[in-house]
Amino acid sequence: MTEETTTKAKMVTRDYLLSFILVTLLFPLWGFANDITNPMVRAFSKVLLMSNFQGSLVQFAFYGGYFAMAFVAAYFIKKYSYKNGIVLGLALYATGAFLFFPSSLGHAFWPFLVSYFILTCGLSFLETSANPYILSMGDPATATRRLNFAQSFNPMGSLLGMFTAQQLILSRLNTTDNLALTKLEALDPTKYSALTANPDKIDFKAVREAVNAIDPAAFEAMRATDLVTIRNPYLALGAVVLLVMIIFLIAKMPKKNSGGEFSLKDTLGRLLRNKRYYEGVIAQFFYVGVQIMCWTFIIHYAEIELGIDNATAQKYNIVAMLIFLLSRFICTFLLKYVRPGQLLKSLSFGGMALVLGVIFIKGMTGLYCLIGVSACMSLMFPTIYGIALEGIGEDAEFGAAGLIMAILGGSVMPPLQALMIDQQTILGISGCRFSFILPFICFVVIAIYGHRNRKLAH
């Protein structure tokens, strides 16, 4: 297929337009879930008095659900249809969100982890269904471009999730921080003076710990309020997802699955012999890792390195997402003229350069570099996805499942980075800044994949 044919082919024909619109509307839904959750790593660490590593288990549970359910989702879709996979995914998504109500009644961490896991089992169904469904809706020559366009709406949900986290959760947790500070001043002026010696860099977790040591009942009351604050947006999210599920139940959509008899052994054999596919799974693992690390720990960087409070730090995360969104549309346009692998490789080199800035440049410049990384990440998920599934035919459902399982990178990488952040210094560099060596390594792997597939036309 020539680049000229790719450029002229319609991205979506009229026959698929309504189905394309409905499925594309799902992309913001999991973007919202991802990015209202990223700041919760820091929030739970503070509210439940845990280390950064313990708080990062939010991501372990969240992205672990993707991994656990992907092949189950693929089998379900293969037997039934993409539409049924979407409906079941929405049902699990809503269930996980509603489980935040009983989770908030206790003051333990594990019920929230269970809620996140069930929620993302639903997201695994949605992504395993929606991505290949979009690829199938039209000319194969425009499949990668079509998926990039649909994925362009994902950051819109992400932005809304970030804004919700900032306005409805983090800002209210900051109010509790100030209440704890006032309480500590009344209970122990000496401890208060020690913890506020540098007013631009107050450790509010330490303040909460001090209040808990002196007046556990007061601390428990504050924690109960904070857990309700965290809970309520998820309950509202569950109601929205339930409504979307009803729309999909009613809507008439093409069946679009290969159906019939199939051999799992033969399918997996073909996939494992397809070098472009299994290397794509590896690249996707590292891409999701770098995305979740950079977006989760931007708050940690701002707070630890610069003394910026959580709600204000989240504003920088929102700026990063705006850059990501703008870059996604620009890169989707560029795909009409530039081969996907070549663009993937170029953006990976840009990501490497910016991450080195995060590690070695102190102050706001380092933070700006971290924000800029989002411009380089915008193209990567759908492009790796499209390249890996190119020409995969009847194995699309299970091929998609493998790529969704690769989201495990978002489960494994953040706890590793959190362990580094918990260290004061590593090789003479602050643990927080040095920890971004992991995103650098991820970009190296993605660049190699882009280079190896730089000649693929679409």
Task: Offer a concise description of the structure.
The chain is mostly helical and 458 residues long. Helix content is 78%, strand content 1%.
Tag the structure with descriptive keywords.
mainly alpha; 458 residues; 78% helix; disordered N terminus; Growth Hormone, Chain: A; two-stranded antiparallel ribbon
Tell me the strand percentage band.
under 5%
CATH fold name, please?
Answer: Growth Hormone, Chain: A
CATH C-level class? Mainly Alpha
Number of domains: 1
Class by SSE composition: mainly alpha
Distance N terminus to C terminus? Answer: 8 Å
* Average of per-residue pLDDT values: 88
**Biggest pleated sheet:** 2 strands, antiparallel
Written overview of the protein:
With 458 residues, this protein is mainly α. The protein has one domain (3-255, 263-452): MFS general substrate transporter like domains (Growth Hormone, Chain: A, Up-down Bundle), CATH 1.20.1250. It has helices spanning 3-8, 17-24, 27-37, 40-47, 52-55, 57-79, 82-98, 100-105, 110-136, 143-151, 154-187, 189-195, 204-214, 216-250, 264-273, 275-296, 298-306, 310-334, 340-360, 364-377, 380-388, 396-405, 409-421, 431-434, 437-452, and strands at 425-426, 429-430. The protein has a two-stranded antiparallel sheet with strand order 1-2. A hairpin with a 2-residue loop joins strand 1 (425-426) and strand 2. Helix 11 (154-187) runs antiparallel to helix 18 and helix 13 packs across helix 14 (216-250). The radius of gyration is 22 Å and the shape is globular.
